[in-house]
Each structure stands twice: as C-alpha cells, then as structure tokens.
From TrEMBL:
All residue ranges annotated as the Response regulatory domain in the record: 3-117
Native organism: Candidatus Opimibacter skivensis
Record-listed 4-aspartylphosphate modification sites: D52
Domain OmpR/PhoB-type: 125-222
Any single GO CC term annotated in Swiss-Prot or TrEMBL for this entry: protein-DNA complex
The protein's name: Response regulator transcription factor
SUPFAM superfamilies documented for this protein: C-terminal effector domain of the bipartite response regulators (SSF46894), CheY-like (SSF52172)
Record key words, sorted: DNA-binding, Phosphoprotein, Two-component regulatory system
Molecular functions (GO terms): phosphorelay response regulator activity; transcription cis-regulatory region binding
CDD domains: REC_OmpR (cd17574), trans_reg_C (cd00383)
C-alpha cells in the first residue's frame, strides 16, 4: 500500500484529507507538529509527503529540506495559503515537486498525488475502500468478504467517479458527459438504470449509500 506522510496543524482539514486518502486506498501517517515530522518520516519511510507550510515548530519548507537530505527523489507537495511567486520559488528550492494553494479541492489533490506517484514510478492504489467494501477498478469488481460482484465497463466508470468524490456531490450532467459523452435524454434514462444497479451492489454494506440530490445529481456516502 502506498504510504503518505501528511503534516498539517489544522485538525479539521487534516481529518477531512486523511479520511479521503484512506478511503482511496492510501496508508496515511499524520502529525500536526513540524518537529515530529522528521522522526515520523524516518520511521514510516513514506512514498510521498504532503507538507503544510505554516506549522508550529519547523515550517513545511524546513521539513522539506530535511527530507531531501535523507531522500533526493521522494515526491513532496507543499500546501499553503500564500500564493506570491517568492513563496512558490522558496517551496521548490526547499525540495518541493508541487505547490497547492489553500483552499483546494480533494479532487485536485488526488490528481496531483496520482501524477507525482506515476512520475516517480509508484503506482496508484489498485483497490479503494468504501465502508467494508473493496473496489478494484482494474478487475472491475466490488468485494465484501467472500461476496464479489463484477461490474460492466460503464458501472466501473460510474463508481470510479463517485469514489473519487466520495462525500461530495457529483452533478448529473457531469456524469453523462464523462461516461456517455453527451447528456441526451436517452442517455439520461440509461443513467437511471445504472444508478439502480450500483445501489443494488452497494447494499453489500448497508452503511454505504448512493444518495440522490434532487436537481443536482448524486453523492456517495459512508455512514
């Protein structure tokens, strides 16, 4: 499993990001302290680091410099509320590979993580967890213990969209354009059929629900 070191002192944001990463198949090691980050890095030996810049103790830039002394190639993403060019330059000089300004979307963070892991020769997780269910987009299966369901291509693409945005609304039009290529009425009726099928599969864990948001679209939640 791909391991991520996450250093962030805003606890609410940290829990939100950590939970999303875990649900998407990553092993996350979090600390709120810049001073503890180096110890955790040596202990965990992560595959990627996400470092907030403004931290108690050592700053994210200082942590990045220390990490680079131990590992020259590990991907590092800096998170900051600052966007001035001098701050961006300092981030890259401190060993950063990418720079994400707060507030950011979880979808954008996931995309940047995936790109950096691919560039470093690390693969994205093969399986994603939602509740007690395991979703394997390569094999196109959902599993819960000994029970396995094999998905069709479109069912697989739909579930990938919902997993990528778990806990967040996904607009109906966006789904139609992504999976079918247009939002014609015929495809819209097809989407209703596929949503019904996915809900049937997800019943393997009653805590996982695919909600209808009237006038908006859908939202995958894990209760």
């Amino acid at each position: 499993m791909t391991k991520i070191l996450y250093v962030e002192d805003e606890e609410v944001l940290a829990m939100l990001v950590r939970d999303h990463l875990v649900k998407n198949g990553y092993e996350v090691h979090w600390t709120a302290s810049g001073n503890e980050a180096e110890v955790l890095f040596k202990k965990v030996q992560p595959d990627l680091c996400i470092l907030d810049v403004m931290l108690p103790g050592k700053s994210g830039f200082e942590i990045g410099q220390v990490i680079r002394q131990h590992n020259k190639t590990i991907p590092i993403i800096f998170l900051t509320a600052k966007s001035e060019s001098k701050d961006v330059v300092e981030g890259f000089k401190s060993g950063g590979n990418d720079y994400l300004k707060k507030p950011f979307s979880l979808e954008e963070l996931m995309a940047r993580i995936g790109n950096l892991l691919a560039m470093s020769g690390k693969s994205k997780p093969d399986q994603f967890k939602i509740g007690d269910l395991s979703f394997d987009p390569i094999r196109m299966t959902i599993e819960n213990g000994n029970e396995t369901v094999t998905l069709s291509h479109r069912e697989n693409e739909l579930l990938k969209m919902f997993i990528d945005r778990v806990g967040s609304p996904v607009e109906r039009k966006e789904i139609l354009l992504h999976v079918w290529g247009d939002d014609h009425f015929f495809n819209s009726r097809n989407l209703d059929v596929y949503i019904t099928r996915l809900r049937k599969y997800l019943k393997m864990d009653p805590g996982v629900q695919l909600l209808t948001l009237k006038g908006v679209g859908y939202q995958l939640v894990d209760n």
